[in-house]
Write a structure and sequence with these properties.
alpha+beta, four-stranded mixed sheet, two-stranded antiparallel sheet, 6 helices, about 40% helix
Length: about 190
């Protein structure tokens, strides 16, 4: 019985120890995407609050729509608000496809980014190696900063009627290209 108590105590500690922190360096071969998505949402909420807006609630329907679109963009190597799939052509179509009803307003921000990198010579291996120097916090900052520096994206982030959101991120395995989709909405009945 005593051993079970220790196991129950140690299991949460091991899970906590393996979770990334905002200051941890991002390993682009093993990115904790969900954690990065949470950081981006938190930063967007902070910006909205600084402008007198309310933070946004996470919405699973918007999450499905955002994940669908970020997958589509990654597969097709695009940076667009549109798909060639008729039922998912634009953000409104995608949100409705995944069950969004009685929508008053929807919006979407899309981002494509190559992470900054440095090539350094490895004397032992006799070749150049690519090094990335992002922490989770600095990568989330870079994503949000790109949107803030664009008037159209900034305006979308600040629309006061939006109450719900979801962020989806995809990082390509070989090139480490980052694609991000954030979907916003206001429902009539909520």
């Amino acid at each position: 019985m005593h051993q079970i108590a220790w196991l129950i105590f140690l299991l949460p500690l091991s899970l906590w120890a393996s979770s990334p922190r905002a200051v941890d360096t991002v390993d682009f071969d093993h990115v904790q995407v969900h954690y990065l998505e949470q950081l981006v949402k938190q930063k967007i909420d902070s910006l909205r609050q600084a402008e007198g807006r309310f933070p946004l609630f996470h919405d699973p329907i918007l999450q499905d729509a955002a994940r669908d679109h970020v997958r589509y963009l990654s597969i097709h190597g695009q940076n667009s608000h549109y798909q060639r799939i008729p039922d998912k052509y634009n953000v409104l179509d995608r949100v409705e496809y995944y069950g969004g009803r009685q929508l008053v307003k929807v919006g979407e921000n899309v981002l494509w980014k190559r992470p900054a990198r440095l090539h350094r010579w490895n004397d032992r291996l006799k070749r150049y190696e690519t090094h990335y120097f992002y922490t989770y916090r600095s990568l989330a900052d870079a994503i949000v900063k790109a949107w803030v520096q664009s008037r159209r994206h900034w305006n979308t982030l600040q629309i006061p009627q939006f109450k719900y959101t979801a962020v989806a991120i995809h990082i390509a395995p070989e090139s480490h290209e980052i694609r991000v989709v954030q979907v916003f909405a206001q429902y009539h009945n909520r």
